[in-house]
Amino acid sequence: MIYELRTYHCVPGKLPLVLKRMEATTLHMFRKHGIEPVGFWTVVIGESSQNLIYLLRWASMAEREQRWGAFQADPEWLAVRHETESDGPLVQRVSNTLLKPTAFSPSP
């Protein structure tokens, strides 16, 4: 099992639009492509309150490459992304880290 920790560093003031897109569209697209989210968080206290942080679960790196690649190339996702960013980008940058649980990590 591999986990992917993703942080969307949003353009100031655009976090509500990112959250709306995630809930209204992106989650549907994740289900369509078999992408399994574990959870989503926003920052209460920390470096920036303009971040969306979420965790995805993958069976393997090969599964991640196949499913994430299909999601990113999906014409429906590309159209939604283009439409929701017609006034400019919502996210300044994306950080991601791939994590492997330790032997003593509680099972999910």
Automatic annotation (TrEMBL):
> Can you tell me where the transmembrane regions are?
none
| InterPro entries the record matches | Dimeric_a/b-barrel (IPR011008), NIPSNAP (IPR012577)
Q: Give all residue intervals belonging to the NIPSNAP domain.
A: 3-106
Protein name, please?
NIPSNAP family protein
Per the UniProt record, the source organism is Steroidobacter gossypii
